[in-house]
UniProtKB/TrEMBL annotation:
<keyword id="KW-0472">Membrane</keyword>
<comment type="similarity">
    <text>Belongs to the binding-protein-dependent transport system permease family.</text>
</comment>
<dbReference type="InterPro" id="IPR050366">
    <property type="entry name" value="BP-dependent_transpt_permease"/>
</dbReference>
<dbReference type="Pfam" id="PF00528">
    <property type="entry name" value="BPD_transp_1"/>
</dbReference>
<feature type="transmembrane region" description="Helical">
    <location>
        <begin position="7"/>
        <end position="28"/>
    </location>
</feature>
<feature type="transmembrane region" description="Helical">
    <location>
        <begin position="183"/>
        <end position="208"/>
    </location>
</feature>
<keyword id="KW-1003">Cell membrane</keyword>
<feature type="transmembrane region" description="Helical">
    <location>
        <begin position="68"/>
        <end position="94"/>
    </location>
</feature>
<feature type="transmembrane region" description="Helical">
    <location>
        <begin position="228"/>
        <end position="249"/>
    </location>
</feature>
<protein>
    <submittedName>
        <fullName>Peptide ABC transporter permease</fullName>
    </submittedName>
</protein>
<keyword id="KW-0812">Transmembrane</keyword>
<dbReference type="InterPro" id="IPR000515">
    <property type="entry name" value="MetI-like"/>
</dbReference>
<keyword id="KW-1133">Transmembrane helix</keyword>
<feature type="transmembrane region" description="Helical">
    <location>
        <begin position="129"/>
        <end position="148"/>
    </location>
</feature>
<keyword id="KW-0813">Transport</keyword>
<feature type="transmembrane region" description="Helical">
    <location>
        <begin position="101"/>
        <end position="123"/>
    </location>
</feature>
<feature type="domain" description="ABC transmembrane type-1">
    <location>
        <begin position="66"/>
        <end position="255"/>
    </location>
</feature>
């Protein structure tokens, strides 16, 4: 029941944010660049959450920030998953010295925090949403690759792989029929966890001015802009902070629920 509770709560939190983002593509209270609401207007009336220091509607900014957060999570997981899976499979099937060399390279990359690697990449290429997604995905790829490498080694050591090779089954077919299905559950759990980390990384980059550039809203930049007026307009800081916490906790609980399910299935 505990694992189901984690999974259900996590999915509900993620779906709440995802639902709000989907609604934002059909309806927004105001245009993103509309500054007619007046500076730091309190919540109420046409502006349910009030306005920011430029007079923009906070609810509109919050919804657009949700698009950025979910888009970054999906994009970074796709980049990191594809690159990490490919590199991990190659390392898992490599000869011993190539495998050892790949392990050393992956350990070096993982030694650097994901945010630091992303900051270095973004600083060198320029701030944009695409660059942030690519940078976070590349940093994530090393973590995924090391996990896939270990999982592939475990699968290749099992008796049914030896039997398949004796029967003349090709390596590509073994990968598709045996390796990928066996590593998929653990890999899915890891990618779900990485999605939450990607959301935090994008918010951190935007807070530092290295994420999505204006006029696009980002929860991280909303927090940065709100810190100067937090005493006079606390909602401007509380709203994006609460949205960020809700999404990240939801993704982490979902990953934890999936992990417990995989652990029970292996017993």
């Amino acid at each position: 029941m505990s694992k189901r509770l984690h999974l259900y709560i996590g999915l509900v939190l993620v779906l709440i944010v995802a639902g709000a983002v989907l609604v934002s593509y059909l309806w927004l209270p105001f245009a993103p660049d509309d500054t007619s609401g007046g500076r730091l207007a309190p919540p109420g009336g046409d502006h349910l959450l009030g306005t920011d220091k430029l007079g923009r509607d906070l609810l509109t900014q919050l919804l657009i920030g949700g698009r950025i957060a979910l888009g970054t999570a999906l994009g970074a997981v796709a980049v990191g998953g594809v690159l990490g899976l490919g590199a991990g499979l190659l390392a898992g099937f490599a000869t011993r010295w190539l495998d050892d060399a790949a392990a050393v390279v992956l350990d070096i990359l993982i030694a650097f925090p994901t945010l630091l690697l992303a900051m270095l990449i973004v600083a060198g290429t320029g701030a944009s949403l695409g660059t942030a997604i690519l940078a976070i995905g590349l940093a994530m790829a090393a973590i995924v690759a090391r996990l896939v490498r270990v999982l592939v080694k475990q699968v290749l050591g099992r008796d049914y792989i030896t039997a398949a090779r004796v029967a003349g089954v090709s390596w590509p077919r073994i990968v598709l029929s045996h390796v990928l299905p066996n590593i998929a559950p653990v890999l899915l759990v890891n990618l779900a966890l990485q999605a939450g980390l990607a959301v935090l990384a994008e918010a951190s980059l935007s807070y530092l001015g290295l994420g999505t550039p204006p006029p696009n809203a980002s929860w991280g930049r909303m927090l940065f802009e709100a810190q100067a007026t937090v005493l006079t307009s606390p909602v401007a800081a509380i709203a994006p902070g609460l949205a960020l916490v809700t999404l990240v906790i939801g993704m982490n609980l979902t990953a934890d629920g999936l992990r417990l399910g995989v652990s029970d299935a292996d017993r």
